[in-house]
Write a structure and sequence with these properties.
Layout lengths: L7 H12 L5 H6 L6 H8 L9 H8 L4 H13 L2 E4 L18 E5 L10 E5 L6 H16 L3 E4 L5 H11 L4 E4 L13 H10 L1 E4 L11 H12 L2 E4 L7 H6 L1
Parallel strand pairs: 3-4, 3-7, 4-5, 5-6
Antiparallel strand pairs: 1-2, 2-6
Helix pairs in contact: 1-5, 6-7
Length: 246
């Protein structure tokens, strides 16, 4: 497939490859070029810019623009939407956080988030029977009230939120800590497809990215960014759920 090279998505993708998903250095560098990804690419892609470190310059020199075409072809083949921060489908609230994702990979169209009351539901992967019963009930009531529930697609409390929405044939948003094409939690690929029919499955991680532990706190800022509040059902004191609430 051919792509118009003035499409800023390709350049934002290149920046994500060069600096890494969720790296605030993307924003520090593009700020020197009026937040224009094309101008930034043209200025730093030779690895000789004064705005990048020697370590960054080495990676930049090994990041080839042609790879972006291959990735776009792969995403099109998988029916993934690749949505840069310049795209009108990008969730508006997410633009307002510190260090917003430059690019989102999506199953489904997340633009509906802009017009909905979104509440993030988080909690432990190993809830007590009482917590699970409570979560199921309150999530069903929240969905019935018209709220869109967002969560992290983990086992336990997260899944309770997504199940409540699907049970009511309502929208829900799942934000992943891995690539869209990675089967995690294992055996839940069909669940992602069901969510994407009316809602959205979102990741800032390049397809193929494994669910590394460091990805999940990074993922949590997206959950908090797209929502108007956070419900914590059950969580330990050092949990990602409380990081999201913070």
């Amino acid at each position: 497939m051919e792509y118009v090279e003035t499409n800023t998505t390709l350049y934002w993708l290149w920046l994500v490859f060069a600096f890494g998903p969720g790296n605030n250095r993307i924003w520090e560098v593009v700020s020197h070029f009026d937040n224009d990804p094309i101008a930034t690419y043209e200025a730093i892609s030779d690895g000789k810019s004064k705005y990048t470190t020697p370590a960054e310059a080495k990676i930049i020199e090994e990041t080839f623009f042609e790879e972006m075409y291959d990735l776009m072809d792969y995403c099109n083949g998988m029916n993934y939407n690749v949505i840069s921060i310049d795209d009108e489908r990008y969730p508006q609230r997410l633009k307002e956080i510190f260090n917003p994702p430059a690019v989102l990979f999506c199953m489904g169209d997340p633009s509906f988030i802009n017009n909905e009351v979104v509440l993030t539901v988080v909690g432990t992967r190993n809830p007590s029977k009482y917590s699970m019963k409570f979560s199921d009930r309150i999530c069903e009531e929240l969905v019935a009230s018209g709220m869109v529930l967002a969560s992290g697609f983990a086992l336990g409390i997260d899944s309770s939120a997504h199940r409540a929405a699907l049970k009511a044939n309502a929208r829900t948003v799942a934000v992943l800590g891995c690539g869209l094409d990675v089967d995690y939690p294992q055996g839940n690929h069909e669940f992602k497809k069901l969510i994407a029919v009316k809602g959205a499955v979102i990741s800032e991680f390049i397809p193929g990215t494994r669910p590394l532990g460091k990805n999940f706190p990074q993922r949590n800022r997206i959950l908090s960014g797209i929502s108007l509040g956070t419900l914590v059902v059950e969580a330990s004191q050092r949990s990602g759920a409380l990081i999201t609430a913070d």
